[in-house]
Amino acid sequence: MIEVKGPASRVAVIGTGAIGRAVVHRLLAGGRDVTVWNRTESRTTELVAAGARPGRSVREAVSSSTLALLTLKDYTAVQQCLTQLDMGLSGQTIVGMYTGTASEARQAAQWAPGRTPRPPRRGCRA
Q1: In whole angstroms, how far apart are CA 9 and each of 31, 33, 34, 35?
Q2: For the whole model, what pTM was predicted?
């Protein structure tokens, strides 16, 4: 298990489909400062009205947080988002929550500018 030291009070949620929306609502209910980004900006309107802050880009949303949750459909969507992060990620934790293969999880873990990636964790079925 990855331990996030101290309260992860600033969280970015990238992707606001069904899972992303549910996660954001739980985080807001828990008093977290949440920034949201979705490639279709109108899908963040409800979440912004509920108290989340809109991110104008993946980079802006992730850089505003200490914890970023990628609640995306698949590895292709994750790759598209990761390519927008041309910055160091020291002190930040990025968690991918998407459907993919073990090989894709390893590829995602290898990509992390400015930090040493942790080995990917096995997923679980809900």
Answers
A1: 8, 6, 8, 11
A2: 0.78
